[in-house]
């Protein structure tokens, strides 16, 4: 591992290396978004270059598409691919049932569509993302711009009857403007502190007109790989049963560290 990497990047990199081991020749792979997915794309590109691994990637954001293209990973659209073997993506929080909060990078809509269209979803994260209950990280909800303030009011009303501890809702800003997603929608961040029933909340949020999708991923993640700064990773594979702890192979080429994460 590079001594110049921060401990958090070393943890993310360890998880990314382990996840890319799951990619086999000829696979169609969903490519996640964020600073952990950044390392996954770097590592995948390294295998493409060094081993001649053939993969086709489906990016979950314009940022990921640009990076993957730059790294020489062949890309296609989800419709062209039809169905994917695997998606590898990061998360903002993950609970003991492998339910997730995603969307910190505003790509939750494409991320959920791509992960759902995959045989397996592998989530990679530094160990600090694991929580007893979801909700400390604000829950992102993507809404269409038309009538977004009305949609926000409906979300706030809905939260009154939900098993949550906080109810503040803020529209996400970037550079002094309301953020626009790749689909040109806005993001409402729900400061809930504690989500008692993620499955129920995920279902009812999507019933509000104007809500396009929410960042709760319930029953979508199959494998969780948590990395630590010393290179160790913990793998929890729902198909394989018990969790295992292994040391990732952190042998690295110099060029992978030519630039830092997002
Ligand atoms: O959901 C996401 C983007 O929409 C990311 O996967 C999530 O925000 C985690 O990002 P990072 O790996 O940078 O912590």
TrEMBL record:
The keyword Isomerase is annotated on this UniProt entry: yes
- Catalytic center at which residues? 111 (proton acceptor)
This protein is called what?
Ribose-5-phosphate isomerase A
Q: What does this protein do?
A: Catalyzes the reversible conversion of ribose-5-phosphate to ribulose 5-phosphate.
Give the matching InterPro entries: NagB/RpiA_transferase-like, Ribose5P_isomerase_typA_subgr, Ribose5P_isomerase_type_A
Q: Which GO terms describe its biological process?
A: D-ribose metabolic process; pentose-phosphate shunt, non-oxidative branch
Q: In which pathway does it act?
A: Carbohydrate degradation; pentose phosphate pathway; D-ribose 5-phosphate from D-ribulose 5-phosphate (non-oxidative stage): step 1/1
Entry keyword annotation includes Amino-acid biosynthesis: no
Q: Which GO terms describe its molecular function?
A: ribose-5-phosphate isomerase activity
| NCBIfam families associated with the record | PRK00702.1 (NF001924), rpiA (TIGR00021)
Q: Which residues form a coiled coil?
A: none
One Pfam annotation reads: Rib_5-P_isom_A
Q: Which reaction does it catalyse?
A: aldehydo-D-ribose 5-phosphate = D-ribulose 5-phosphate
For substrate, which residues are the binding ones? Answer: 33-36, 89-92, 102-105, 129
Which key words are in the record? Isomerase
One Gene Ontology cellular component term attached to this UniProt record is: cytosol
Top enzyme class: isomerase
Its Enzyme Commission number(s) read 5.3.1.6
Q: Which family does it belong to?
A: Belongs to the ribose 5-phosphate isomerase family.
Top-level taxon of origin: Bacteria
What does the subunit section of this Swiss-Prot or TrEMBL entry state? Homodimer.
Q: What PANTHER family does its record include?
A: RIBOSE-5-PHOSPHATE ISOMERASE
Taxonomic lineage of the native organism: Bacteria, Pseudomonadati, Pseudomonadota, Alphaproteobacteria, Rhodobacterales
């Amino acid at each position: 591992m590079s001594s110049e990497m921060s401990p958090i990047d070393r943890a993310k990199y360890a998880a990314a290396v382990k996840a890319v081991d799951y990619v086999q020749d000829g696979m169609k792979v969903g490519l996640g978004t964020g600073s952990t997915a950044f390392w996954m794309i770097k590592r995948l590109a390294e295998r493409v270059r060094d081993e001649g691994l053939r993969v086709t990637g489906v990016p979950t954001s314009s940022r990921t598409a640009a990076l993957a293209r730059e790294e020489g990973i062949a890309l296609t659209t989800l419709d062209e691919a039809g169905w994917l073997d695997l998606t590898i993506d990061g998360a903002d929080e993950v609970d003991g049932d492998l339910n997730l909060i995603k969307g910190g990078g505003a790509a939750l809509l494409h991320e959920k569509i791509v992960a759902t269209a995959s045989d397996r979803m592998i989530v990679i994260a530094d160990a600090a993302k694991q929580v007893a209950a979801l909700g400390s990280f604000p829950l992102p909800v993507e809404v269409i711009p038309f009538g977004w303030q009305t949609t926000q009011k409906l979300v706030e009303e809905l939260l009154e009857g939900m098993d949550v501890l906080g109810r503040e809702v803020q529209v996400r800003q970037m550079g002094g403007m309301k953020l626009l997603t790749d689909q040109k929608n806005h993001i409402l961040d729900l400061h809930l502190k504690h989500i008692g029933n993620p499955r129920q909340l995920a279902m009812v949020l999507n019933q509000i007109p104007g809500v396009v999708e929410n960042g709760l991923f319930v029953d979508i993640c199959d494998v969780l790989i948590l990395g630590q700064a010393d290179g160790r990773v913990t793998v929890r594979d729902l198909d394989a049963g018990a969790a295992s702890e292994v040391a990732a192979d952190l042998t690295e080429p110099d060029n992978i560290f030519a630039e830092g994460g997002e």
